[in-house]
Every structure is written in C-alpha cells, then in structure tokens.
Design brief:
- The chain has 308 residues and is α/β, with parallel strands linked by helices.
- It is built from 8 helices and 10 strands.
- Strands 1-4-7-10 form a 4-stranded parallel beta sheet. It has a two-stranded antiparallel ribbon with strand order 2-3. Strands 5-6 form a two-stranded antiparallel ribbon.
C-alpha cells in the first residue's frame, strides 16, 4: 500500500517526460475499500486502508494530475447478497415509480449504481476532497451463474448494460445526485464470457459475447436504440433466491487431467471429507474420477465452507 502512490508518481513522470499527456494514471479499486456505503452520505473508507497515509496522498495525486478515481462497481453483487430487501428494478435502472431519499443529504436516488458511486464521493469528501472525478473501471451483470446465484441471466444482463449505456452516454450528461451533469467514463465488464475461468458460475458469464464471438444479446453501445427496438429477451426464471438443497458437481467440460491432482489434494488430509469413497463404502460406486471428484468437492465444501 505504501508503494502505491510513489509508483503512480513515477509512471506519471515517465509519461510526462515522453510528452504523453493524454494517459491518466490511477488505480482501479473495488467497492470493499469502503466501510460503509448506505446511505450514500455515510460513505467512508475502511480504517485499515490508513486514510491519511494512503488515501489522502492517493486522492491528492488524482486531483493534481486531473486523473480519475477508477472504481469497480457491481450492483449485481449488492443486490444478489440481499435480494429480499433490495429491489431488482432498482439495481437494473428500471424502478419507474420508486426512489430512495438519503436522510442526511436529502439527495434522491432512482438506481443502485448511483448510490454506490456517491458513497465513494462522500467518503472522499470526508477527507477534504470535494471534486474527485470518478470513472467506472468495471461494471456489468452476469448472464448466467450457479443455481444459487439469483438474477444471473441474459435478460437481466441485457437490461442492465443497455440502461447503463443510455445513462453514461446521455446528452447532456447525467452524472450522479451528488455530482450531477458530470461525464463518467465507463468500461463494461466484459467483452467475452471467460469459459476457462475458475470459481462460481458467474465468474465465467459476464461477456457481451460468447467465447466463439457470437453475441449473448443485442446491445447498442451508442445508447441511441430504445428498448422497444430490441428483440424479445428470454424471460428470467431465477430472479428469486433458490430455496432447494445445493451441492457441488464437476463442471461440464472440465479437463480430466486436472481432476486427479485436485481430488488428491482434497482427500489427502484426514478430514473425513472422502471417507464415503473408500472401497465398499456407500459412495465408492460408480468408480469414476468425475463421480468421485463431484462427491469429494461437495463433501469438502459442506465441511469447510465456513473457512471462506
């Protein structure tokens, strides 16, 4: 952390020495740099980020060089972690007749993205920086996910990204309630689905395009096309939290050569996760690497999910 701003200064000086003036230097940061984001006026940086030794020099550098505070901001995660109390329409920019008023600032919010962005602005203002320029270095919505990841579908991804584009390309600029009329440079995450990426199902499904280059859905990146001109989207079936039991299975298309070493690492400890796979025990049959790996991974997850 202490090396972050000095490194940025060196990069900036190198660009300046080569008379390259149009490249902005700044670190993309996740929303978890904040200790509080709701209501937006309560936004403040986490104390372990050492506000006055890291954040103040960082924000000073951004102001001095007229660069942006690049933020990775994903309303999907905020909504999916609390779908019963947060409106999906609020997250997708489709809340027509509902809004939220910040009790401290009095600002009115009609979507979750603005709330999240303004919490960053209020956190910076608490450190004395009133005119920080925001850029969205990553935002988007997953077009698919695991069965227990609600709202991850093509319908929601298309609606979110289409409305996002309309918002950030509007003329005149919309900005946010705390910083109205300001252009917010925005990068959509991501161009392609990443079918070889590890982790939860949503990790592989953020793309505007499939890995073969075909579109997951139509989107006009100029923001001109209206929703009525797009073809009908498939209706979502997973916009509510999954209520059934869940377990792990080996992902379709996994390379068999990868499973053996991972299975061995899961079962090598004397932790009981693979006891049922021993010859003669209840899950020994069928004797297949995929079947054994699915059981072992699920068993290990159930036993040790509390570790994170």
């Amino acid at each position: 952390w202490y090396n972050l701003v000095p490194a940025m200064v060196r990069i900036h000086n190198s660009l300046k020495a080569q008379n390259i003036q149009n490249i902005k230097v700044g670190p993309p940061v996740a929303m978890d740099i904040l200790e509080s984001t709701f209501p937006p006026s309560s936004g403040k940086f986490r104390p372990e980020i050492l506000n006055h030794q890291v954040m103040v020099p960082l924000l000073s550098f951004l102001n001095k060089t007229r660069s942006f505070f690049f933020v990775n901001v994903f309303p999907y995660f905020s909504w999916s972690e609390n779908p019963t109390n947060l409106s999906l329409d609020f997250a997708l920019f489709t809340a027509k007749n509902s809004s939220y008023t910040d009790p401290e600032s009095g600002l009115i919010y009609t979507n979750l993205l603005d709330q999240m962005l303004d919490s960053v602005l209020f956190a910076a203002r608490k450190l004395g920086f009133d005119n920080i320029s925001l850029a969205i270095s990553e935002t988007g919505w997953p077009n698919a996910g695991d069965i227990d990841q609600p709202g991850a579908n093509i319908h929601n991804a298309a609606i979110y990204n289409r409305n996002l584009v309309r918002k950030v390309t509007a003329t005149p600029p919309i900005g946010t309630p705390a910083q109205p009329g300001v252009v917010i440079p925005t990068f959509i995450f991501s161009l392609y689905d990443e079918n070889r990426k590890f982790g939860r199902g949503t990790e592989r499904h953020w793309g505007l395009l499939q890995p073969n280059g075909l579109p997951n859905y139509e989107i006009d990146l100029t923001g001109v096309q209206s929703e009525s001109n797009y073809p009908t989207l498939p209706q979502p079936t997973n916009n509510k939290p999954f209520k059934g039991k869940i377990w792990c299975v080996v992902a379709p298309g996994s390379r068999i050569t990868d499973l053996g070493p991972v299975l061995n690492s899961v079962c090598k400890e004397d932790n009981g996760a693979c006891d049922a796979l021993a010859p003669g025990n209840e899950c020994y049959e069928p004797v297949s690497l995929v079947a054994h790996a699915s059981y072992a991974f699920s068993s290990y997850w159930v036993k040790f999910r509390g570790r994170g």
